[in-house]
Amino acid sequence: MPPKITHMQEPFETPVLTAGDSLVLRPAELDDAERFLNLAAANIERLSHALGVCDPPKTVEDRRKLMAEDLKSVQNGDRHWWMIESEGQLAGTIDIHRIYYRVRQGFVGYWLGAAFTGRGIMTRSLQAVIDWAFTERKLIRIEIQSSIENRASCAVPERLGIRRESIRRQSHIVKDQTLDMASYAAFANNWPPEPPEKTTTDKNDLSRRRDSAATSHRI
């Protein structure tokens, strides 16, 4: 019988991380409730489509209650959750969740406010989180899942050289619609990722293309 997979046995403190100039990842706390509420409200259409968030809290008090519940998983050691601050403004969030102690792996989720896209903020944030997870948290595998229709989200791990492992068909439901999810994985023993070695077939194909190009040039 395979060993039972269990969650982390002891809490592990979530630190402040820096991800370049004016970009700070700060551990989530209850006092973030109002800013988080405002950011989510301003991006509810995007969140509803990507994450299935249909009826978010409408008051700071309700947001605090929900955050208190979410922070229990942080206190239990099953999650690390950061608020992404760009030049002092709350830009989005990123977390490591579903952390499994026995197999030293976890999943990363993230979202970014529309006003902060196109600046490389999430790419740098993801790199900082994975750097920490591998070097300090001693995880060996990080998985990221995103709808294949959400190209902006998929592009984040791809920009870091993280390769797609599979597509999980109909594995997520948003507004009663099933979504196919792309699964990306980063590994501690290959971080930052090195490009895959070319196979003999790839090398032969490249050689043929070079010969063809040279022949055309001579003609």
Task: Characterise the protein shown here.
This protein has a single domain, classed as Aminopeptidase (3-Layer(aba) Sandwich). Helix content is 35%, strand content 29%. The protein contains six helices and eight strands, in the order ββαααβββαβαββα. An eight-stranded mixed β-sheet has the order 1-2-3-4-5-6-8-7, with helices on both faces. Strand 4 and strand 5 (105-112) form a beta hairpin. Helix 1 (33-42) packs across helix 3. The longest helix has 19 residues, at 200-218.
Name the assembly state.
Answer: single chain
The overall pLDDT average reads 85
Q: At the first level of CATH, what is the class?
A: Alpha Beta
Number of strands: 8
**Strand order in the sheet with the most strands:** 1-2-3-4-5-6-8-7
The CATH topology:
Aminopeptidase
**Which percent bin holds the helix content?**
25-40%
CATH superfamily: Gcn5-related N-acetyltransferase (GNAT)
The major sheet is characterized as:
8 strands, mixed
